[in-house]
Every structure is written in C-alpha cells, then in structure tokens.
Design a protein that fits this description.
six-stranded antiparallel beta sheet; Immunoglobulin-like; 16 strands; mainly beta; 181 residues
C-alpha cells in the first residue's frame, strides 16, 4: 500500500519556492513522491536504510526498515541521544504520519510541544512485504533552537525502528553513526 500526503501544497521556504516533497505536481495538483526521486547519499545501520538529497533549504529523504512499525532518523551535534532532532514515521491503517520529536531520555516528544516548529513539509510512505518506507521533505533550519541542519556538516545520526506503530513504543533496534550531510 502506497500513501501520499502533502501537508502544505507548494511552499515558500526561506525564499525558495519548492513543491512540498520535492516531487512533480500531477494534473490533480498532488505531489508525486516515491520512485521518481533518486538520492545522492545513503547510510545503512541497525537495519535502517537512510537516503537523502539536500536541495537549498530542504532535505528530501527516505528511511526504511524491515518492520511494520515506526522508522526514525535523528540528528545531533553532540554524541548523545539527549537533544536529538528525531524524524519519526509510520504507516497505520493506510495513513502516513511523520513527526519531529526531540529526545530527552528516557522520553521524547513532539518538537512543537516544547516551542519548536515542525520542519516536515511533505510525507509519503508504504508498507510492502514487511518493510516500512517513509519519504519526507524536511526544512533544514526551522528557525528554532533545535538542531538546525547544514549541508556538509557532520551529525551524530540516530537510526532506529520499532515493531509497533505507536511512536512512543520503544525501539527494537537503535544505533548512531557519524554522517556528513
């Protein structure tokens, strides 16, 4: 099952007009993400495949793992989980959900609940043959204090997945690696 979701239609992000999701806009006005996009960079760890391309002020990305639960990628300048800017996604009952959370071990919660701004501009996802794949477009710098991202910089990057769709359910597998965006 493939589900597309465009949160804001076309966007003006820091002066750069981009279709949400970075994909083409079809004749119905829907953003087409997915197989048309190719990614410039890739890292695989802990069973999570994370691919991305940075275009100006946004990152187009795909994360996938052999699970029917959630998948996540997170970024931190420090080599710790606390303060990590997590992008978590799932496909539940045919609907894709992608949220930004901030880690404060042993908990985490929506970035917007603690005064931050969500950088998730578009999302799509699929569950197919036991693999959850989530694609999203993310604003690199939302103008808040929570881990602004910059192309070419190195981040302590968390990759994780769970057996459950509930974003608050613990991960089944999690690791972190240094990644240059």
């Amino acid at each position: 099952m493939l589900v597309h979701g465009c949160l804001y239609g076309c966007l003006s992000v820091h002066g750069c007009h981009v279709p949400a999701g970075g994909g083409a806009i079809d004749e119905r006005g829907s953003v087409q993400m997915g197989s048309e996009r190719t990614y410039e960079r890739k890292v695989t760890a802990a069973g999570v495949d994370f691919q991305w391309t940075i275009e100006g002020p946004v990152m187009h990305a795909k994360m996938s793992a052999r699970t029917l639960g959630w998948v996540a990628v997170g970024f931190n300048r420090r080599k710790e989980l606390k303060g990590t800017r997590l992008v978590m996604g799932n496909v539940r009952e045919g609907k894709v959900m992608v949220e930004e959370h901030i880690a404060d071990p042993p908990q985490h919660g929506p970035k917007t609940a603690i005064g931050g701004r969500s950088g998730v501009l578009a999302q799509s996802g699929a569950e197919l043959d036991g693999v959850t794949s989530i694609e999203f477009t993310l604003t690199l710098d939302t103008g808040d204090e929570f881990v602004p991202l910059e192309q070419g910089e190195v981040y302590f990057t968390t990759l994780a997945w769970s057996h459950e769709d509930d974003l608050y359910h613990h991960s089944a597998m999690r690791t972190a690696v240094d990644v240059k965006l």
